Amino acid sequence: MWPGSASxxxxxxxxxxxxxxxxxxxQLDYARTKVQAGAEPWKSAYNQMxxxxxxxxxxxxxxxxxxxxGSYSNPNYGCTDEREDAIAAYTDALAWYFTRDARYAQESIxxxxxxxATIRSHTNSNAPLQTGWAGSSWPKAAEIIKAxxxxxxxxxxxxGTMLRDVYLPEIINGSNSNGNWELSMMEAxxxxxxxxxxxxxxxxxxxxxxxxxxxxxxxxxxxxxxxTVPSQHLDTKAKIVSYWQGQSTFVDGLTQETCRDFVHTGYxxxxxxxxxxxxxxxxxxxxxxxxxxxxxxxxxxxxxxxxGTAPPSWLCNGSVNRGLGPIxxxxxxxxxxxxxVAMTNTQTLTQNNRPAGSNNLFVAWETLTNAENPN
Length: 375
Prior knowledge:
Layout: H1 25-36, H2 42-51, E1 66-69, E2 76-77, H3 79-99, H4 102-116, E3 121-123, H5 127-148, H6 156-171, H7 179-196, H8 199-216, H9 237-243, H10 262-281, H11 290-306, H12 329-338, H13 344-352, H14 366-370
Keywords: Lyase, Signal
GO molecular function: lyase activity
Protein name: Alginate lyase
């Protein structure tokens, strides 16, 4: 077994549930019923999605054989196009499910087919992160279409081959960069593994995820210093403090990137919630483990300051860069709606941000799919 390999608590199921990447059929059915009844916040969230460019029935896909993404997407040769085509494919899949209008399913398939016929590689320094971001959206779209659209998808096999040959090799072994990278990469790897019914890669990705999540969000039960990823060799306090953006006081819910900015912190928190949600759908509820506690604390800690509380001098030298993004719905619903956990700051932030749209990277329409959803 590799370091951090999946334990029995998060191992792949005997057979995968489809659709089963971040959203289940039961969740979608619940939200669809709410939309049809004109209930809020689902109706406004649905209208927001359907009015977005991602739901266009005339979108022209822009696939490339090689997507080249440098640091902060400079250069940007296909990076934005790939991510947004993937989000559009997911948006169309949701639109299909909610409307039962086959044109949306066919639009989603058109986008997936265009890329599976073309892309062969990701290059340059941001390739792993780019692959993780786009690779998080593709299987969400594909799962809904393959499991629920009866009109046919002749190239579904080719799409699966794309995920296996182009995406998985770039992400499955993880990353020693900032933690949001590896968390997003594992979100993609877990989702792709579900679509491919690949138990071995699912277990490998889940093992890497458990190690990284523990090293990304601090809990006081971890001890005086945060946990670390062994391959990063952060074996002194000075190295850990440097990796945690110079932060030397550790409290529950602080993340490795809190003192960098809340935008990147939001990416990491979102990926944790998405993986936990997929795991739950697949039969293993991580919300009752340390993953759920780290998620609860991370949401609450960041939400407090995102809402405007002035940071104390010991936190990020008394200054934080806000901008958490539309990333709280999934974790809040899992912990508050389903498990009954009081999360005052997270609740206020979540409700203030409704309907939560897309971050145009890998998060989309989570008020619609997850708000107050008991399934």
